[in-house]
Amino acid sequence: MATAGTAIERPKPLRDQVYDRIIGLILDMSVKPGDSLTEPMLIKRLGVSRTPIREALLRLEAEGVLTSQLARGFRLKPLDRTEVEEIFPILASLEMLAIREMPDEIRPSTLKRLRTTAARLGSTEDPIQRWRLADEFHRLLAAEAGNHRLDEMTRQIRVMIGRYELAFMLEVSPRHRDADKRHDRIVDALERNERLQAARLDREHWDEESQQITHWLR
């Protein structure tokens, strides 16, 4: 029961729940690049009305994930090398900003979660699980800055980048030990309160991943 001074937790609006479900379909590869997404198909699959589905699809179009097809619904954008070259540096810059904006004393619980997530990432070979753990790691970095707008911007770009990461991991290379070590080193730097070093390592991570995926898409 909520008490005075306690924020009341409100359930997510249906349109946001539908948005999250569609993102899930994209990121678990149930919907692949180039596939169509129609309102009737999603109504049947998700069991909700047309309005929240339409709102979610329009939001994904505005975010650059979908393109509209006249009288044929929407289509998941094909993977594109130019998009990789454009969006990876944006995410790298936003995460570097998030690291610099972290509080002077990073919460021990956050450091523990980062360390645990990095360890789990280094111990699994499953590409989908690896992607989920890497995504969790970088979401924790952004959230610790305590900047809601920054957190939301990184989340949106992570959705766009996630399509590339998963496709690359599933088809080409499910594991990069150098990247695993870099995640550990980011946590090491944060534990020593070396923000600039942590930000530099994070930038190196995204630069390397961008180069690998760009080369794959040629």
TrEMBL record:
The keyword Transcription regulation applies. Pfam families: FCD, GntR. GO terms for molecular function: DNA binding; DNA-binding transcription factor activity. Residues 12-79 form the HTH gntR-type domain. InterPro entries: GntR_C, TF_FadR/GntR_C, Tscrpt_reg_HTH_GntR, WH-like_DNA-bd_sf, WH_DNA-bd_sf. Keywords: DNA-binding, Transcription, Transcription regulation. SUPFAM superfamilies: GntR ligand-binding domain-like (SSF48008), Winged helix' DNA-binding domain (SSF46785). It comes from the Bacteria. This is Bacterial regulatory protein, gntR family. It comes from Bifidobacterium margollesii.
